[in-house]
Each structure stands twice: as C-alpha cells, then as structure tokens.
Fold this protein.
Amino acid sequence: MCGIFGVYDNPDAAKVTYFGLYALQHRGQESAGIAVSDGCHVRDYKHMGLVPEVFKEETLKTLTGNLAIGHVRYSTTGSSLLANAQPFVVFIGNEYYGIAHNGNLVNAMELRRELEATGAIFQSTMDTEIIMHLMARELRHGLEEALVRALRRVKGAYSLVMCTRDKIIGIRDPRGFRPLCLGRVNGSYVLASETCALDLIEASYIRDIAPGEIVIIDRDGLHSLHPFAPEHPAHCIFEFIYFARPDSSIFGQNVYLFRKRLGRLLAEENRGLDADLVTPFPDSGNYAALGFAEAARIPFEMGIIRNHYVGRTFIQPSQAMRDFGVRVKLNPVRELLDGKRVCCVEDSIIRGTTTRTRITTLRDAGAREVHMFVSCPPHRFPCPYGIDFSTKGELIAATHSIDEIRKFIGLDSLKYLSLEGLLKGAEAPESDHPFCLACFTGKYSVPFGEPVTKHCFEQSP
C-alpha cells in the first residue's frame, strides 16, 4: 500500500501536497516525496521517514510551482531504500515525467527481464519504474498513446498520479483494485488515494476515477480516456477492513460505517455470548468493536490505550520493528481488565505474532478469559496486488487451523466473520460482487506466474 496525491493549478502546490500526504500517512510510513513543476522544470524532494520529518518549511519553500504530485511509501516491491522512494522523475525528449504508484504489477519480473535484455538500465528495484520504461519507448506516438500502450503491457493493480511540466494525470487499472478520487479546491483539481486527504485541504469531492480511466488535467481543463476493455471490478476489500482511514469514503462507501456493520454481523454470527466487556485493539479494531458491542449488548470499553505517536505495526518493514511497535504502542488499563471476561475485536490476523504479543499483555493485566472475534475471514492466500503478504509463509491461517491459531495466540476462543457475513456487510451480492477476495478464497481475478515479492529484483540469478 501507498498513498498518492496530486494538485493542478495551485500557487501553493507543494504545500497543498504536503497536507494531502499528511492525511494519507497511514498508507505508508517508510518514505515521502513531492515533485513540483513551475512550468519550466520539475523539481522533486524525497527522503526516508514520515511526512513531517521529510518536509520542513524551508524545504517546501524551494519547491515552487503550481502543480505537484506526492507519494508516501509502504514497500511491497523493492526494498525500503531512498532509491525506491517516489515520485520517480525522469527527463526524456526535452520533457519531465514524474510518477507515483499505489499497487503491484504481477508481471513485473517478466517485463523487467525483457526490458533489460533490450538495453534498459534501471535506477531502482521497484516495479513502478517499469511503467516509465515502457512509456518512454512509445513517446514518439505522443503522451496519451504512449501511456495507453505502456499500460496495456502491465498486469495487476495500479492507481497512478503522473505529471509533466504542465499537466497532471490520474490513472486506475481496469479492475480498480486501489482507490483514487478527484476533488476540487478554489478552482484547483486534486487527485488523492482517499477522501480524507480532500477533507484536510477543504476540497470538495467530485467523483472516483473510474476503473480503467485515464484523467488528464492541463490548461484546457479535464478530459478522460477509457482505452481499455471493461473488466469486472475487483476492489480490494482489505482497504475497507484495515488500510483506509475510517473517515474516508472509498469505492462508494464510508469506511467507518462499513467496519461497524462487520462488527454487528460478527456478533450476530456468535449469539449467546457471556462476557464482561468488549474492547478493540486500537485503532483499526475500534469500529468493528463498536458494532459488535451494540449487537451483543455487552459494554464497550477502551481496555487498551494507544500511544498515538507510534505508527501502524502491520506495515512496519520487519517483524522486530512490529514487535517493538506493539509494546510501545498499546498499554492495557489494568484496573478495568483485572478478573474480567474480555471479548477482543480485531480487524484481521495476518502473521499472528503481533496478536500473540497483545494477548499476553491482556493476560498479564489480569484478564480472566480472553475471547477474540475477527471482523473478516481467515487470510489463507498471498496477495500479489500490493499488500505485504506476498507469500503463504507470512500467513498463519495458510498453515494452521483456527484452533491451532487460537492456541498459538493464547486465547480461550477464536471466531472469524464468515465470507457470507463479509459480503453482507459490504452490501454486495455473493454471486456478482465488485470486490477482490483472493486473500480469503484464493480466486485471483488477474492471473500471475512468478510471484512478485519485496526483494524479487535484488535476488541473485
């Protein structure tokens, strides 16, 4: 996952992009970058770290121009290195091109080998650079046609913002795996991964970029292309379950209300509970826990308090960092939990190690019983489309039964929401829904061969 943002025709384009990225920080914490154009040059600045760490007031003052694109990175292809930070900017044929990408290309290995065999020299190990190489070879046909020809070669998930000296471009893949929306503030067009970025800069939401659409914004206004054959949508449902901010609306639904519905359905599937309190693991479990407590008629309590100066543990690049983050991030309210039968509501269990640490903390705080309810089905299959569990070995449910997971984590009971309950919460039919459920079902809408992993381009032959 990553967060992308773009703004056109705004005198403070870099600063607006800074605030847009600040609102999207939850989507990536490894690096941040902004590329800005003044009509003559495209300047970019990027570094490892969080948005306010990377960009200081004096840095933003040097990024002058009226259009900009920005990126916050959470790596799924290519290591967490400055060379892989985005936006990725190149100069070809007397024009600058910048690109920021959210998603994963499933045929990246094949395309990179082909490009290298014909003389391409890569500056990074991320799949995003492949799009630039493919486009560069077609620029004799003009930018629009070059983009279409390049994107017809790539497969997988991509929401993109791009820029030249005088335009910004927004693109979604034909199945619409990742979100991307269009807004407007004081006459300036804005592109963003989520609507929460529009809210922060007081932009009005216009619409989502449609799957398979290319939107080009320049001095002539906005025009869009729909060059690809229609595909059945495959919106990533894990965006709703975990990644997106609860105050965002994506894929036409509000994230907060979606998560709360899942919690209610989870309680309805597990009637007859006898417990003293319901508590979430903040913050991602909060909203499902609210719905669960309401439906189960069990008191909702914040039994665990979050230190908000610690980032999200799932998207930390190493397990050691995740474990440390859990200890620093969450602290139990011992007087509330001591001797209680506790229902913990969690949005998901991926590797199980983070959850195990949390349950140990509850036991140490004196909880008499700990029962866990998860507001989605077990993750049993890897995601090749841009979520950081690209191999089965990273998923505890791929190799363990639910009871084995329960024992490993240290729970008195463990229940997951059914797939039918998930789709009911999504208010979508089971037979013709618009979501990608591959991590639960193993049914991939875009086939892939050789798996694309975080370090796949760095391995020795």
Q: What stands out?
A: The chain has two domains: 2-234, 257-428. The mean pLDDT is 92.
